[in-house]
Amino acid sequence: TAGELAGLRVFLRWRFRRPDGSTFDAVRAVDTATHPDWQGKGIFTRLTLGALPDLQADGVANVFNTPNDKSRPGYLKMGWHDLGRVSVAVRVRSAVTVRRVAGAKAAAEKWSTPTDVGADAATVFADHDATAALLRRVPNPAAIATDRTPEFLAWRYSFAPLHYRVMPLGHGLADGVVVFRLRRRGTALEATIADVIAPAGAHFGKAVGHILRASGADYAIRGGVGIAGGFVPASRIGPIFTWREVADAAVPELGDLALVLGDVELF
């Protein structure tokens, strides 16, 4: 019928920063909804592809997302590129928790488990001056990364139902922070390390250890590879990252991107 809403396609604005300090605008493809009477009639494809010319006119360089196994084939048919699985690393609290970690094969719960460990992230990042002072001490990443600004951090970690927390690395915000949340995954309690924002040379392993002990989390997971902070690489755990060029024809390799879990987890 006339005026009936058949479908909804949402793109979330994002911005990336290159190693040279320059930035480019992107969007993340997020929610899609189709009215039951219109399902199976190509609404998802028409809305998604129909948005690309508008995004291009708006100067958006690319679309990115982490579609699941069910939706990924549809994106690939529309020209999305599968860049591969995001690297993640895991740190187990102790040998005693290994068995519970082995049972953490289910999908993680969407909503966080509340905790009073650390400080409320929304409150911490509401102080834009202190956040700016921290960011001035953080070196530019050696790869393409999310453009962190005080405004971005205040927005990204302020959603109350996800209970983001901040664990300081020193005596003040300028010494660096670990941003995390807790969530259930199967039989285990997971500490998701959304981001580590710290000056060059800062050590975050002690802060992660405190998070695990104080919260009772069985293990912590973060984006990236290597053994820094007591983490070990975990293959085939991270989400598959996809990319669609829009105003910029360049398509990076996954290794060209410095991704943290705060960039790729659903929220």
Look at the helices and sheets and give the structural class: alpha+beta
Structural Rg: 19 Å
Helix content: 10-25%
Q: Unreliable segments (pLDDT under 50, ≥5 consecutive)?
A: none
Percentage of residues in strands: 25-35%
The gross shape turns out to be globular
The main sheet orders its strands as: 6-8-9-10-11-5-12
> How many DSSP helices?
8
Terminus-to-terminus distance: 33 Å
The helix-strand sequence is EEHEHEEHEHHEHEEEHEEEH
> What is the averaged pLDDT score?
91
**Strand segment count:** 13
Main sheet overview? 7 strands, mixed
Question: What secondary-structure arrangement, pairings included, does this model have?
Answer:
Layout: E1 7-17, E2 23-34, H1 43-57, E3 62-65, H2 72-77, E4 81-85, E5 88-92, H3 98-102, E6 119-120, H4 121-125, H5 128-137, E7 145-146, H6 150-156, E8 165-168, E9 177-185, E10 188-197, H7 205-215, E11 219-223, E12 232-234, E13 240-245, H8 261-264
Parallel strand pairs: 2-3, 10-11
Antiparallel strand pairs: 1-2, 1-7, 3-13, 4-13, 5-11, 5-12, 6-8, 8-9, 9-10
Helix pairs in contact: 5-6
